[in-house]
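Input/output pair, single chain:
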Amino acid sequence: MTRDDLKALIRTVPDFPSPGILFRDVTTLISHGKGLSACIRHLTALAEAAGAEAIAGMEARGFIFGAAVAAHAGLGFVPVRKPGKLPVPTIGIDYALEYGRDRLEIDPTAIREGQRVVIVDDLIATGGTALATAELLRTAGARVDHALFVIDLPDLHGAERLRGAGLTVEALMDFPGH
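Output:
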């Protein structure tokens, strides 16, 4: 399936979570077997071209796409978790959200010093979570210079923010608007 075929599988839900927002729902792609498989193949090709030695994905949908890409490429997967979810000592980072703060954590032993880790997630909007993920992985010793997404919402400028932090950003599709 082409990227345009995959884009056609994304459901748009108007006025969610608030009036005026067009929510891009990736669950319709995830539930489409051939579409999901093609999506993972496209992302895997990008990860391999980036020289990935491991894949990191953020909770929760980054786990779906990131773990599948890692498995398809024969690489390890580094889960980037919400606080208190890992049973071992962690390192973490606090970061700003549109209306508050959040925290991400990883097991630092899951990464080798200098290992090239590619971030994979379902969607890039403002880029806050992906930026925090890159910083956290770098703190753990990873080399992070690529972030891959299924969807980019370019009007929210998240990809630009990531590029400003030294990341190459690629998405399989984009949707204008918020």
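The two ends are 26 Å apart (CA to CA). The chain has a mean pLDDT of 96.
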